[in-house]
Amino acid sequence: MRIPDGPAFIPNLRKRGGIHVPMSKRKAGSFIPLPAEPIVLVGANIGGRPNFMAAGFAGGVNHEPEIICVSLSRKHHTPIGIIENGTFSVNVPSIDYVVETDYCGLVSGRDVDKSKIFTVFYGELGTAPMIEEFPIVCECRYTGQRMEFTTDIAYFGEVVQVHVEEDLLTPGKKAIDAIKARAILYDRLDNTYRAIGDEVGKGWASGREYGA
Amino acid sequence: MRIPDGPAFIPNLRKRGGIHVPMSKRKAGSFIPLPAEPIVLVGANIGGRPNFMAAGFAGGVNHEPEIICVSLSRKHHTPIGIIENGTFSVNVPSIDYVVETDYCGLVSGRDVDKSKIFTVFYGELGTAPMIEEFPIVCECRYTGQRMEFTTDIAYFGEVVQVHVEEDLLTPGKKAIDAIKARAILYDRLDNTYRAIGDEVGKGWASGREYGA
Question: ipTM of the assembly?
């Protein structure tokens, strides 16, 4: 397991008897302080033609049904397609497609035809364009809910079906190997795309070491 | 740069003349298909006492002002504090605090007093409890906006001030080194916490290789 060097890496902090090391902090202003965010391409058909835009503001908001939020700048072209069809897609890129992914954030579908960059396929909803070359993609039904802000509007979509590269699935197993998928993240703190690193804990489990 | 092995790692895909490799896909059902999400502790005072909960549904939604969304299960205790004070905090853990972070998702503030796990400090808002031991924390003013779903409710907060560990800041430089911060992510695909990996591209820049 490769973990960055640190002055005090103690996996089970309970063992150090509740001793904590407060850090000296400085005010750094107002920004979204998240070192790891998803980076995805949001797809929608506009006038019957697929368009894709890079989105760093994307994430789950609900289970049962599974609902995903994409918050898109008011300047973007893609929302037109979301409203037009009531559907959109969320496409998770691999490391191999960093260039295309970033490109889809640099240019607008208003000015450039982005329909030929990828091999596009459609699923159950019929109108949510998905990317064959990406390892994990999903089609979403716009719930009709949206939240308006000054620069962006958040759109909410129910995940109707996830389509996953065959090699990433293990029969009878729910988990998907993100390392094998060569998935990436967006590091907002220094505006970089990064690979996903080694496991450092299990969700809903590591905390038992503390006494839960 | 350490990058997982892949059959076709070609950083500049334009060079391969638009040849793409469609992947054979399988339907995998309905879930949030994101391999990298932030994992944070959302803090709020409840009856004057700080409480923290782990949240995997957290992310930016707007710039100018900077607004962050945290979507929290209806069962959780923390929303009471968000409504009570109109403030909350978002605390970004380091690898060293995986156990505590997960613990704060396993137990509810309704049943367990989580106010003594960390050294707590307050900033400009006075009522958003922040964690001294975490490298990057921020205080948020609840905008009053929320979006209701079946299992969760999304709350929106304006980031009033980010407080960052002194060592992570470089005078005159905006970027913060997430590797040095030993930041983690939540991999929803197999329910693990992971370290943040090597840089594989630059935001709003890598795409120029494609022709933007």
Answer: 0.90
